[in-house]
Amino acid sequence: MDSRGSLVRALVHPANQSDKIAIEWLLARIPYTARWARVIVDSGYETPVMTARCHDLFDIEYVVVPHLTGSGFQVQPLRWVVERSFAWFGRFRRLSKDYEASPLTTEAFLYLASLHRLAYRLA
Predict the structure, then answer these.
(1) Is residue 115's pLDDT more than 70?
(2) Within 13 Å, how many C-alpha atoms sit on residue 34's CB side?
(3) How many angstroms from the chain centroid is the CA of residue 84?
(4) What is the arithmetic mean of pLDDT over 19-38?
(5) Contacts of the segment 20-24: beta carbons below 8 A, 24+ positions apart
(6) DSSP string, 47-93
(7) pTM for this one?
(8) Closest by alpha carbon to 18, among 41, 42, 45, 43?
(9) Whole-number average pLDDT of the chain
(10) What is the DSSP-derived secondary structure letter of residue 100?
């Protein structure tokens, strides 16, 4: 997702595969014509290999946002954009639960929901 919450690329993979491996697959699916300054990821994706690969292959900064600790609710910097976008996708019935048997179908509905949001913004 970009900073406005628009979906750039999605990858739905089986739960028995690590997210650290899946992020490599996701970055490989993004066209090289897309120019980014940095990729912001959750602490679950923190690996020295991905940091080096993003710097060497894509010439972008790989930023890992750690979880804040403390009591009560705290707005976590940079994480709210992704969480807000997931909440928007949760408004779509087909994306609110895991109804689909195929990961490709779930990806297709993610793209449809994203197109719906973009069309709503234009109207």
Answers:
(1) yes
(2) 13
(3) 12
(4) 73
(5) 20/44, 20/45, 20/47, 20/50, 23/50, 24/50, 24/53
(6) -HHHHHHIIIII--EEEEEPPP-SSS--PPTTHHHHHHHHHHHHTSH
(7) 0.67
(8) 45
(9) 76
(10) -
Say which residue the tokens 């449809």 belong to.
112
32 band by pLDDT with thresholds 50, 70 and 90: low
- Which residue has better confidence, 107 or 78? 107
Distances (CA, A) of 66 to 40, 43, 46, 69, 116: 11, 5, 9, 9, 31
Helix axes of 103-122 and 79-90: crossing angle, nearest 10 degrees:
100
